[in-house]
Structure prediction request, 845 residues.
Amino acid sequence: MMQIYKIDANTVQVICCPPEDVNRGDYLLIEDVNSERSLIIQVINSGYVNVPGILEDILRSSSTEKLEGVDLDPLEVKSFVNIIKDAELFTCKIRGALNKGKLSNNVSWIPPRSTSRLRKLPDVDLIKLLENEPQKGLDIGTLKGGGQISININSIDGKLNIITGKKGTGKSHLSKLLLIQLVSRGGICIVFDVNGEYINLGYTKNEGKTSLYDRFIPLTPGNDFKVTPQYAGLGVFLRVMENVLGLPATSAWEFRRIWKELKKQDALTLNNLNSAIRAVSNNYIQDALLRRFESLINTKFFTDDWSVATVLEAEMDKMDKGGALIINLQNINSKFRQIVVEFLLSKLSQLLENWGLKAVFLFAEEAHLYLRETYWNDVVTRMRHLGMFTTFITNQPDSIHKSVYRQADNIFLFNFTNEHDLEIVSRAAMIDVETVNIIARQLPPHHCLMLGKVLNNFPLIVRINSLKEKTMGETRLFFSDLKIKKS
Amino acid sequence: MQVLDFSQKAPYDFIELGNTSLKNTIESSHRLRNIDSPTNYIGNFNRLNEHEFIVNFDEKKLDMIRLVYTDEKTHIFGLDTSSIELGETSNGLLCAVRGTIVWKDKVKYNYTRYGPFIFHVTENNKQFLYNKLRQMYFGASKAAPTPDVWWMPGRIRNILERWLQGQLSQSCEDSVILWDGSLTAWTIDSPVALIDDMLQMARSRGNVVLAFSKKTKFTIFGRRIADLINNRDAPCLLDLDEIIRQQYGNYLCFFGRVYAAKLTPSQFSFRLDVDREIERETGINAVQKLISNDIVVESYPETLRLAHILSRFSASEIIGMQRLIAENFGIRTVFRPNIRQILFGPYGGGLVNNKMIL
Ligand SMILES: Nc1ncnc2c1ncn2[C@@H]1O[C@H](COP(=O)(O)OP(=O)(O)OP(=O)(O)O)[C@@H](O)[C@H]1O
Ligand SMILES: [Mg+2]
Prediction:
């Protein structure tokens, strides 16, 4: 049986004796039969009730000498005492209220202690409260009680999401799960894949092709992903040279002149750019330009040969039923990554603005490795406005800019144990610090605390579904690597 | 060494009478009719305070007996009981009693714990309960005046304690048996004949009964006995028998030789009564066997301390029993005593010279 012990602001303490199957994260309903009102609360912590005398009991039973004996306990008092000793105290947070069965946000109502009844809110009822239409949902996972959680596509569409948690907890896995379902529903996605772990999503675990095989397009910059200077445009070139490669402003000005000249002559090729730079009379400028230009050439990301060059519009056309470009950023250096990202973000903006691309979902793993300072704000404001909806995935919550936390619509929080990390996450005002601190610490692997609009602002602990697809997220093992090399 | 199994014996009448009282099935017709005034009991309820002996004598006359350790192996048995009030009902009170026998073998302490037995004592059933128990356990044929309901938990506890003492007397051989309290008979709780019988029985099987009193305070010209004995002298006994009997012999019946015992160097000493019918030397030797075979902490034998702590009720047990009564018997408590008060109050507490025994 559960009873209200204390209510203090947003916190309700509940005593449960004898024990019931209630766990952290579970929802309870405090119903007042007389007024047809109820409070929806969530258990965020549990512990033993501070029954008087327990300390004494423990001290007694931990006598230093060896002690064994028999109890002739005809009334079986012991079982009753154990019930008392096992009485649990749940610390709960108020998450909502019901008035005549309708969700209401008037949570200031205090249920009467004597006539209120407490019960666990079954998954089915809870799921109803999330106001998710299952047919429009992406299947994400299950609640502890087995209830299926699918999130409304609208709660991802147009939204900014953060997936965070410590290493190996299942962040990338969730992002793949979202990606696959978005793609299968016609979404166009781009993945910045720093670990090269999304490139095999078109395959099943036993190397067969999945039904979405054609829709995942892996692109390895410098290899099967090259662009012509014309297609990239002056803007990209200049930004890369200035911001990534540190070209001084005067030299940039010279480069702009060369570029425009060649373009006028319809002779914008890498070779011609090279020759023109070499013809610059000022040695100092020539040298500065040449060094930057050569490092661009060395990436092999640029080509003059249109037949091997990637044109995003063409790729997008192929994805009319949904698809994803997996940009494999593995094994390339930080500058090269930034060049690729610079190119893609600028191109995507153009496509969204002018070309009729309606929306694109961007999955950015460890974005701090390639996202320039100035882009963070851009991504959450201007580009979002244009229709680029980003999901940041990171195990370093402090690498994500504060503005992103403020703007985030949904946070998928996996296990964290580090105090500092938790503090950063709990700043995302979406939820009370206590919930984050207690629940996030205890999340098992593959479970996440979902926060935000995604579930109608009811925080839920969800076990994320597994995938049929080949995920490559697996920790590399020495021996399995060995096998691959031999064969 | 003997192996004893106390778990085969149970005070069945405690179980049954307790249950009957809870089910409220004791009719007033159960009341015994012949309520005679007691003849074979000494004392009355308004007694002088046994726990305070103010001894007036010359310090030099004190006979101090130094104790020595021995290799002789002996079984040590101890027992203790406790009672507690669980709450008041509209027509009486609820209480529980429990008792424990503890003994030490070569490697460990063993115990058999009896209870808790729960009683619902009311004005209607107290006479029946009390006399029935006395009849069954003391073999008392005649009814005794029943105490006030408030005294009943203690009286019932005492009957359980006497029963357990009887069990030990009958079962043990060549052992040291430790009782809690004294070997003084003077109240309705201590029928002279019964104590006599039990000591006799124990003796006939080669046992020595030693009674340790936690509560008795000796003061000699205002000074505690413990202060009179130098720590260097411990373990030792002070023979107070003659002096005490001279002063109190008229009021009390002493079955034991009274000593003050300081068994370890510490600030504590206890009153120790040794069965009087046993040779003085044999009695002293029994104390030496005790200190050699048991652990003694702060002058108090571990066997007895364990019996005490195992019998005492903890707060969670009290709440558990209150719940049991409500759930299984539907008895409503109108007033629940404050748990701290019952646990730490003057008679419920386990204080040895202000030091709590857990
Ligand atoms: N819901 C799940 N069901 C089954 N397996 C899972 C699930 N989530 C993750 N895994 C597996 O656990 C491992 C780690 O997952 P994942 O790579 O997603 O972790 P991560 O949080 O992204 O780690 P990192 O911080 O190293 O990137 C992988 O082998 C993945 O397949
Ligand atoms: Mg990952």
About this structure: Residues 152-171 of chain B form the longest helix (20 residues). The longest strand of chain B covers residues 76-89. Residues 6-356 of chain B form one domain.
